[in-house]
Amino acid sequence: MEKYVDMKSPFTGGKVKEVSTTEERNYKGKTYIVHVRYYVCEDTGEQFTTTEQDQEWYDEMVLLASQGKYQEIVNQENCSIVAESETNYPSKE
Q1: CATH number (domain holding residue 51)
Q2: What does the pLDDT profile of the chain (93 residues) look like in tens digits?
Q3: Taking a C-beta distance cutoff of 8 angstroms, is the pair 39, 16 a contact?
Q4: Is the distance from CB of 70 to CB of 85 less than 8 angstroms?
Q5: Which helix or strand (DSSP H or E) is residue 58 part of?
Q6: Beta strand pairing call for 47-48 and 71-76
Q7: Using an 8 Å Cβ cutoff, are 5 and 16 in contact?
Q8: Contact status, residue 57 vs residue 36, Cβ threshold 8 Å
Q9: What domain range is 41 assigned to?
Q10: Which sign does the torsion angle of CA 44, 59, 90, 30 carry?
């Protein structure tokens, strides 16, 4: 999702869009799909983030890691297959 925000580009002083999407991020040898937000300068196309935006996706990734919800990425001749992990935790009986 993209939307214009009330902010001036740090590069040109022009208009800025905020983009919300999901992306793959690597953490401790595993790949996680997390929600990310970043800004795009309309004049240059340059992407930039705030510390708050970076912290949001990082916190989500750490939470997913603690729950064992990583993505297995398997490359097979120019195609990728993404399969969600199945983590079985022992029951607390």
Answers
A1: 3.10.20
A2: 999 999 999 999 999 999 999 999 988 888 989 999 999 999 999 999 999 999 999 999 999 999 988 776 544 333 333 444 444 434 444
A3: yes
A4: yes
A5: helix 51-66
A6: unpaired
A7: yes
A8: yes
A9: 2-84
A10: positive
